Amino acid sequence: MSPVSAPHDAPARSAGDGLRPTLAELVQLRALAQRRPAARRGSHHLSGPAASPLRGRGMEYAESREYVAGDDARHIDWRLTARSGKPHTKLFQAERERLTLIVADTAPTLYFGTRVRFKSVQAARAGALAAWAAVADGDRVAVLRGAGRDPS
């Protein structure tokens, strides 16, 4: 298996043989993930240069409490209001961090590829880039791997 020389692949390919990803190769991808362009922000006049620590209002239900003047009427808990006879409002938990879920297929069909690297190695590289980008954005990372059984 003789690798084809490509200037954009040279640093990463020198770390591995293309048959299995090495830890050093996957760690090297961290620099590439950090050089990616920043996410586009909204173009309206309310967007600022600094990112907020909160990721939005969040839709995770936290609890209900009695309605107080000034509460948002859109958040009235109609079921609890009907049961108790008193108006109640729903409270939501603010989303402070996101979860990046990386799902990897490790079926035997990935263990072939081009003269440069196996598909399984390329999948590991793509997963590492996604994980490093998520870490750079301050998100949590979770990984699932599995291989389906052959139905025949």
Average pLDDT score:
76
Strand order of the largest sheet: 1-2
**DSSP, total strands:** 4
Total number of helical segments? 4
Shape: elongated
The percent range for helix content is 25-40%
The Rg value, from CA coordinates, equals 24 Å
List the SSEs and their pairings.
Layout: H1 10-15, H2 23-34, E1 60-66, H3 78-84, E2 88-93, E3 99-105, H4 119-136, E4 140-146
Parallel strand pairs: 3-4
Antiparallel strand pairs: 1-2
Helix pairs in contact: 2-4
What does this protein structure show overall?
- The protein has 152 residues and is α+β, with helices and mostly antiparallel strands.
- The protein has two domains: 10-33 and 97-146, no CATH class; 60-93, no CATH class.
- The chain has helices at residues 10-15, 23-34, 78-84, 119-136, and strands at 60-66, 88-93, 99-105, 140-146.
- The protein has a two-stranded antiparallel sheet. Strands 3-4 form a two-stranded parallel sheet.
- Helix 2 crosses helix 4 (119-136).
- Residues 1-15 have low confidence and may be disordered.
In short:
This protein is an alpha+beta fold and 152 residues long.
